[in-house]
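RECORD TYPE: inverse folding
INPUT: structure tokens
STRUCTURE:
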């Protein structure tokens, strides 16, 4: 194996860190991030840090201990992953002390995102995040600040320093990338506007990375989105249409997984990806209920949603899919299933008090019940109305069958009478698209406003 294929992972545990997750769990997650890009993790350790040192973050003694550890291997590892945020100076000093490449948490996640992004938008976002990160670390590449280029002016002169030239080039690239991403955002806004006119409700899957979102997405859509036991297996948003048991069609959206201490560069760069959540009619929060840190992961997801603008005061319904019950013992599984049933009262769930459904995306247990809950949530505000449409208007009939729950259908020589259940918004859209149709039941003031 080459040096770049083996690494050691350390987690600096700050004294008094208010985080709800144990240092050992954070270390395990960091090792999982390394495994996600096929690195061979040969050693892991938690390093207690009373006070971060400006020069190396961790203490000098620990720096020496790790150097000796590296020297003890027959094939000296050439990569150390520090599960924390390092300043450029700390980064450079650690690489010098260990004579090895160092990746902090931000750099590691950027590596994963760079490897996994598939769409043009995803690659743009990753490149932008990389450039933002590199811009603050040019000092690591150019330690000899006296290095200069000859000028092109008449007087000759010393020219501009190499680091200044590189910073200017990076700034120009960042401006171009942000312009391209703005174009992407405008395109996505237009696409969302078209979906609103469709009208297909949007159901967004969110959750901590590796909670099983893509496995559930594949189960519901019968598609083949990448779904592996890896952190950040999905980066690019994927959308598919599915039909609920009554025949009502919805758009299901699989989003990037959330993670604690997500680098600020990525929060900004992937905001467009996560904007799908803001437009969703229902949010399904997929949780790995079998994970020991499931509750802490839930809090991290809620914090990210709050940053995006999805608050507990938001009226958007939230359903928690308590996934991976197949990995639990009988007692714990029974407890989870009982807790989930107690939340299914017919009321709409919120972020802090969601409706819960116990399931296994892998085996399919509970998935049908999840669809039933989604349908009940979507139709809680639906009304029963009767539409009369010309017998020859097959498009209007098909529209209702695809987007509403058709309860009864009758016909005479000139017209079809369809008794359906659908939302006020959909009623107004139907009458606008098919002006020859007539509503046989009294139209409420709300429906008039929706039209």
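DESIGNED SEQUENCE:
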């Amino acid at each position: 194996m080459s040096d770049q294929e083996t690494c050691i992972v350390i987690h600096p545990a700050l004294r008094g860190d208010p985080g709800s997750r144990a240092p050992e769990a954070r270390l395990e997650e960091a090792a999982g991030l390394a495994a996600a890009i096929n690195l061979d993790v040969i050693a892991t350790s938690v390093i207690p840090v009373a006070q971060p040192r400006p020069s190396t973050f961790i203490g000098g003694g620990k720096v020496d201990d790790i150097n000796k550890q590296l020297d003890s291997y027959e094939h000296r590892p050439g990569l150390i992953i520090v599960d924390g945020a390092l300043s450029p100076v700390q980064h450079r000093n650690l690489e010098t002390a260990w004579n090895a490449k160092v990746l902090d948490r931000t750099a590691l996640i950027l590596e994963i995102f760079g490897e996994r992004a598939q769409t043009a938008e995803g690659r743009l976002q990753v490149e932008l995040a990389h450039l933002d990160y590199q811009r603050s670390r040019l000092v690591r590449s150019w330690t000899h600040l006296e290095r200069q280029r000859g000028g092109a002016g008449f007087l000759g002169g010393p020219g501009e320093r190499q680091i200044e030239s590189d910073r200017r080039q990076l700034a120009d690239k960042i401006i171009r990338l942000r312009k391209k991403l703005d174009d992407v955002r405008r395109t996505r806004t237009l696409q969302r506007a078209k979906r609103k006119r469709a009208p297909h409700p949007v159901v967004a899957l969110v959750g901590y990375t590796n909670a099983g979102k893509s496995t559930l997405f594949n189960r519901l859509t019968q598609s083949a989105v990448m779904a592996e036991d890896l952190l950040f297996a999905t980066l690019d948003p994927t959308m598919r249409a599915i039909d609920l048991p009554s025949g009502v069609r919805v758009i299901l959206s699989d989003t990037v997984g959330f993670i604690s201490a997500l680098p600020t560069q990525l929060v900004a760069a992937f905001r467009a990806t996560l904007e799908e959540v803001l437009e969703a009619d229902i949010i399904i929060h997929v949780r790995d209920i079998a994970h020991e840190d499931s509750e802490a992961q839930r809090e991290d997801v809620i914090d990210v949603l709050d940053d995006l603008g999805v608050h507990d005061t938001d009226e958007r319904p939230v359903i928690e899919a308590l996934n991976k019950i197949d990995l639990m013992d009988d007692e714990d599984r029974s407890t989870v299933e009982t807790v989930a049933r107690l939340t299914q009262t017919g009321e709409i769930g919120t972020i802090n008090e969601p409706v819960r459904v116990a399931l296994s995306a892998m085996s399919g247990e509970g998935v049908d019940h999840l669809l039933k809950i989604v349908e009940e949530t979507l139709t809680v505000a639906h009304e029963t109305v009767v539409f009369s449409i010309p017998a020859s208007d097959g498009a209007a009939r098909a529209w209702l069958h695809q987007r509403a729950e058709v309860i009864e259908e009758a016909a005479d020589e000139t017209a079809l009478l369809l008794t359906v259940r659908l939302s006020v918004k959909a009623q107004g859209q139907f009458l606008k698209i098919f002006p020859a149709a007539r509503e046989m039941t009294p139209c409420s003031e709300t429906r008039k406003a929706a039209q």
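NOTES: Confidence is low (pLDDT under 50) at residues 139-160, 225-235, 443-451.
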